[in-house]
């Protein structure tokens, strides 16, 4: 166990400033309005810093700065940009503990999750896109006897993104890495609930980037995270043996509480086959009760604080709604401050508590009879950003996964992520240079 000192306390690896202005053109710039917003940590519920209140005037200033920087950054070579991305990855790795604690203090997630998952994925994002652009080449195609099409990738210019509060630093990296790799300048607007950790990141990496290439406007409107009712399907053969596979499946069930359930792909619907229903639900309930909720700065903590009191209230209202609808509360359902116990409901898949989501540590469990029934129930949700399938029969699991509407399906795991280098296409355009080698007129006029 490692217990990190809270920011502001002796021995803390993070030192927040009392106040953060906007970050525009490589400098900290006060808001045009002169207004600031208090930033509250969900870990203790206390104000720990304040950030500039963003307005359209601040946004326009940031966009102007980015537009000027984009021209020069876009003319750099892929090798030059790749070198900067690798330097950013190295710098993040050097400051891993600092950034993990900053993420925890801002968002409320367990520091163990930030250390084991978030920060390593941030590092990987920058290294991955550096490798992609370093090895890319253009293309040439002959489109006529005397004409060739030279195709190359060019930046779109300025990328403006509003960030959600579930993964403030990881979401930042998932924008910055491809956007910078493509040669764009960026304007980021972090969520009102979690703006401070991004300023910590900028303090770490700002000197590696030309002024204006990355700009940060804080304190603008609330940025809600879109939820998806993601099904997690467990076939009866999961419990046929008491082995490591069963343990892995139970861990997959408990993923609904990871990051306090504040993840669009959290498996907030559990579908368990009738033949093994009672046994698996019992084992899953016991595993859920073993999840340690507590101080997020303790590396033994598994479930931290909900990001805000407003979000906590939404979760508690959802729990009360489930009770009113007749769903059975299997475990959890209580809260203290920003902390909500991991909660399991059992009920009819047609009820509101099963069809709706709230982005909290809550899972709704129901039964299914066979493969077709599982697919039918799972696909009732229109917003499936992810889904899980658990079975010792990989042929069955593969076919079920193929039939689900989810954008991403995990089979016998619920945590691996694809490379996503294809996202680079969103941040640039293809330039066609059509060159004629003939000195003869075409005869059109």
Automatic annotation (TrEMBL):
It comes from the Bacteria. InterPro entries: Ald_DH/histidinol_DH, Ald_DH_C, Ald_DH_N, Aldehyde_DH_dom. Coiled coil: none annotated. It holds the Pfam family Aldedh. GO terms for molecular function: oxidoreductase activity, acting on the aldehyde or oxo group of donors, NAD or NADP as acceptor. Keywords: Oxidoreductase. Residues 35-221, 246-420 form the Aldehyde dehydrogenase domain. Gene3D superfamilies: Aldehyde Dehydrogenase, Chain A, domain 1 (3.40.605.10), Aldehyde Dehydrogenase, Chain A, domain 2 (3.40.309.10). SUPFAM superfamilies: ALDH-like (SSF53720). PANTHER family: ALDEHYDE DEHYDROGENASE B-RELATED. Belongs to the aldehyde dehydrogenase family. This is Aldehyde dehydrogenase. It comes from Lentzea guizhouensis.
